[in-house]
Structures are given as C-alpha cells and as structure tokens.
Specification:
Blueprint: H1 2-14, E1 38-42, E2 50-54, E3 60-61, H2 70-74, H3 86-102, H4 108-112
Antiparallel strand pairs: 1-2, 2-3
Length: 113
C-alpha cells in the first residue's frame, strides 16, 4: 500500500499537481539566508549524497548550511526533489550534524587545501 502511495506521489510531482506542504505550526526564526541563492548538487548516483552551494558567495558545504532553518532549506530551488516536509529536512539536518561531528567538523573547503 505504501509503495502505491509513493508511486502516486511521484507521478503527482512529475505532472505538477503536488500540493504545497501545510505551514508549520511554529515556524522557525528566519535568518539572513536567501534560499534562491543556494542550490543542491548531487554528488552520488541517485542523489543520496548532496552538497549545498551558494551561487553568489561561492560557499560550498557537504552538510546543511550552518544556521539555515529547515524552512529555508525546503525553499531552495528543487529541494522538493529530496524532501516534502520540514520534518524530513530536520531529520536530514540531524543526520548531517552527526556526520560533521564524526568528521571533526571538516568540510569541503578543508578538503581543497
């Protein structure tokens, strides 16, 4: 049953009939980020690994941008390819925070040097 629902969701997204997610009951505090300045780069087949890049500042991160809210990440163009709700984004943010801690805070800019 779940697979059938997922298939209908994907088809609905493909044909542009997807309803926007309901607003969060308690929206997060807005930050200085402009979501449209950011884009998501798939770094593995299937998009399981992603980088976030800022087209204006040139900033790139393996993790979610530091200080960016779940709502702002969800507002990045094409983010709905990966997440439909802020709950999903928050879960992803927690996962990325754990990875960052495991990697000792090392990020894309550190790998270039």
């Amino acid at each position: 049953m779940f697979r059938l629902a997922a298939l209908f969701q994907r088809l609905s997204n493909f044909f542009g009939r997807r309803k926007p997610p309901p607003p969060a009951s308690m929206p997060e505090k807005s930050t200085h980020f402009v979501p449209t300045d950011w884009y998501i780069v798939e770094t593995s087949p299937g998009g399981n690994e992603r980088n976030f890049a800022n087209s204006k500042t040139g900033e790139v991160t393996w993790y979610t941008p530091e200080g960016m809210t779940a709502e702002e990440i969800l507002a990045i163009p094409d983010a709905d390819k990966y997440w439909w709700t802020t709950k999903q984004v928050k879960s992803y943010m927690k996962e990325m925070a754990k990875q960052k801690a495991r990697n000792g805070g090392r990020d894309w800019k550190d790998a270039k040097d």
